[in-house]
Amino acid sequence: MQATSKKVITRDEWEKKLNDVKIRKEDMNKLVMNFLVTEGYVDAAEKFRTESGTEHIDLATITDRMAVKKAVQSGNVEDAIEKVNDLNPEILDTNPQLFFHLQQQRLIELIRNGKIEEALEFAQEELAPRGEENQSFLEELERTVALLAFEDVKNSPVGDLLDISQRLKTASEVNAAILTSQSHEKDPKLPSLLRMLLWAQNQLDEKAAYPRITDLFTATLEDPFV
Amino acid sequence: MPGSASSTHRPEGLIERLRSAAADGGGGGEAKLKVLRELKNQIIGNRTKKLSYIKLGAVPSVVSILSSASSSADCLLVQCAATIGSFACGVDAGVKAVLDTGAFPHLINLLSHPNEKYLVYSMVGLPHPYSCTLEVGRATLLRIINGIHWLARKKLAKLSCGCLVVDAGARALKMIYQSEVAPKYDFFEEKNMEFLISLLDKNNENVTGLGASIITHSCETNAEQRILGDAGVLKKLIDLLGGTTSQRDASLESFATIVKGNPEVISEFVGPENGRTWGILIELTKDRYPRTRLLACVCLILIKNAAPSYLQSVGIRTKLILVLLELLDDPGQVGDEAVLTLSSFIADDESLQKLAFEANTIDKLCDHMQKELLQAKRLQGIFMTLANLCSNLECCRSIILQSPKALNVITASLTHATVDVRVAACICLKNISRSVKVRSFERACDIVIQISLSIVAKNHLCQYLSAGHFMTEAVIVPLIQLLYDTSTSVQVAALCTISNLVVDFTMHKSLFVQSGGVKQLVQLSKSMDSTVRLNAVWALRNLMFLVDSRCKEGIFMELRALTLTSLVCDPSASVQEQALALVCNLVNGPVDSIEYVFTEDGLLLNAVGRQLWSASKHEVLIQGMYVLCNVASGQEFHKEAVMQQLLPPASNEDNNNTQSIMVTMLQSDVAQLRTAAVWTIVNLTIPTGAGALARVVKLRNAGIVSQLKNMANDPCLDVKLRVRTALQQSMTFGDFST
Fold first, then answer.
1. What gap in Å lies between CA A153 and CA B596, rounded to an integer?
2. How many A/B residue pairs have CB atoms within 8 Å?
3. Which of A28, B2, B356, B357 is the most exposed place for a label (fewest CB within 10 A)?
4. Do the interacting molecules here have an ipTM over 0.85?
5. Structural domains in chain B, sorted by start
């Protein structure tokens, strides 16, 4: 029978086992800090640092990163590029794809603002040479320039480029590149820890009944279902 | 905003402002900063602009601003270094311009620039907290300073000094050292080594990265690897593997440079018994970052290639193959390099090829190459990996042969714009066509085609047969075109592939001849480049193998006795060997084929005879002997002509002084040469011939028959059996020994 083949672990036993696991407070703090820094919550991180006393982290780099991200999100791509170059000139010099996407975004913004002449000139002078270097850039460029061909751009097959989600996509690409250049991971560790928790529980479900965490928000232990 | 981006950014205008800023000497800080930043933001990431500004002479102006800047003008120094670094990044012309204008020493100076944080403290007139001796005041002071520090940073950020002077200098130098055109660093100079070590010891990832780049760029010889190992550099690099991502990658790269092809350094500093290093490298193959995984694999593979006793574990070997295959999904440089690394990993090692086969490498690569637009390097890597897989294993060849799509991609790449891709596609086709299955199947078809009566049926069958195979005009025509390629390496690769394709299958041969390939083969056999010459002759040799009389005549007409004669006498022994083998195939077959060596007063036969008397390489002698062997299988006067070559009149009468070359060859250590020699004697002494008796007498007088008697128990069975036949034939005329 299936029910009998599974080991049952009661709440008491489980809690006892959990109590035996020691996690250092500093590690927990580092995890929180990692989350705040990666997600760019600079004020929260600053506060958390003074309150928890976690190791010194150069918070200025977050401010700079967030400023770049914000600039792209609000369509000031040229400003964003200058900021990235101040931060670390290597980022755009060694990452042609990112550089192309930023330039592409710049072109999209020019078109959005109806600066058609300027957009054409920019596409020809700045983007066409990149297309010559790389076939996939050329295709993206062609798609972008196609924006100029439609009266009703919003409902055209390339309308998605004008969408705010395109800005967000570019912004997150820059954000990730800056994080990588700072040897910081692109994603915070906390979500992946939660994923690991769920995975481990799923594995364990096959062998035992135990107090599970189903609601991650409250993290309450549910009584084992036998 | 008035004006478009383009009108204010016109290069000429910017250059003018840059020049006047540079002419300003020590002053005009703000203006200088502004124009430098503008230039920097124009060129970063933009190769075309870099080149045009280099042409306009921007680099000397920037370097002049750098050289005249005061050491406290941090922002200016940073902007100069960043701009110079960007000019040097990925553009060799930029590196040259930077070096030519003497920027190098100025950039080196930046590395010893005082720490900016101290500057901030002095700026606000406070002592640094760690230099403060009052224990009580330190905590309070620290708190105040943190505040000031924060403010100062904000201010600096506004002034656009995003990074420290040292970082900017190190980055620029690193960019220079990442270029081929940078000067080599002399590790044998004691001062240089000290400086290098000091770079690696710095607690700054850009500076350690610079150290690593210097090594990667300059370390080439075993002696350089040795001196770096002895100076403890490997150990320092291993320590840096624990640092940031960029430190790790840079260290892995220079680590690879130091261990590459140097078993001595490896046995001393790495390897499984050196547990820590080995363990770290293995661990890094599972790293989160693709580039780190790739570099760790590269290091382990280099260790294995230089010292095959390492990396014996099948588990780790398979793991490396899987990691590299997985990296293929990276669309950029990492994926490109991963597949090239895989190709070099499995080259020349059948057991690794088997492992790669079992890991479904072929399916994965075949899928991958049909998927999207692939860059040249990626295609090259895929073709080379497939070629290596197919160099030995029949199972690999048959999988690819069953995938017409894959074959189409490879064939289409014969006309790719990039040399390396064309070469790789050729090698790939060559190795696939080595297939025994293809060979035997096509040979069977060959026979069927030859006996089939109706031409219509024949054509129909041809189409049907070749549909499943790649040896069609679609392959042959571009391959012949490659013989006209401007790159020698492409020509050689195409020749090798053609050699392989034309060897067995009559249909291939006639297709090749009809497509006009012979003319260019003959042309290439006269090339000044001995590799091209060799492979061209080789291809002709294979083309000549078992070819029908009409084709043979066509080839000979193109080649002519004179050309063949000069190839037989070529300065390169390998060319001689192939040329003799070609002659051998020429005279093989119907008796009238033998006539070819007698044209133009036996020019060719005499050349073969001369080689037999003068050549020292046994490979050449073997082929030469087989030519005579084939000629000796002909009619009476053919046999007599061979006798003339073996026993020239002079030695005939005075055989005490000149030993016949025949005896020398029968005494050779090389069994193949003895076989060829005895076989020739067998052909010369066939008893039915009118002159057989006279020839036996001559051979006996030259001491050849007694030499044969000594060989009755030759260790080589082939030789032994033929010796027996030869002796029996010569005995038919009675034993004259008494």
1. 77
2. 81
3. B2
4. no
5. 660-738 (1.25.10.10)
